Amino acid sequence: MRQPSVIARRVAAASVSLVVAAGAAACGPKDSGAKGSGGHSTPHKGGTLTVLNSEPQTDFDPARLYTSGGGNVPSLVFRTLTTRNRANGAAGAKVVPDLATDTGRPNKDATVWTYTLKKGLKYEDGTPITSADIKYGIERSFAPELSGGAPYLRDWLTGAANYQGPYKDKKGLSAIETPDERTIVFHLNKPEGEFPFLATQTQFAPVPKAKDTGTKYEEHPVSSGPYQVVKNENDGEHVLLKRNPNWSAATDDQRKAYPDTIDVRSGLDSSVIDQRLSASQGADAAAVTTDTNLGPAELAKVTGDKELAARVGTGHFGYTNYIAFNPTVKPFDNPKVREAIAYAVDRSSVVNAAGGSALAEPATTFLPNQKSFGYTPYDPFPAGASGNPAKAKELLAQAGYPNGLTVTLTHSNAKDFATSPEIATALQDALKKAGITVKLQGLEDNDYRDTVHSVKTEPGFFLAGWGADWPSGGPFLAPIFDGRQIVKDGANFNASRLNDKSVNDEIDSINKLTDLDAAAKRWGTLDRKIGGKALVVPLFHPVYKRLVGKDIRNVVISDWTGVLDISQVAVK
Question: How confident is residue 29, by pLDDT bands cut at 50, 70 and 90?
Answer without folding.
Answer: very low
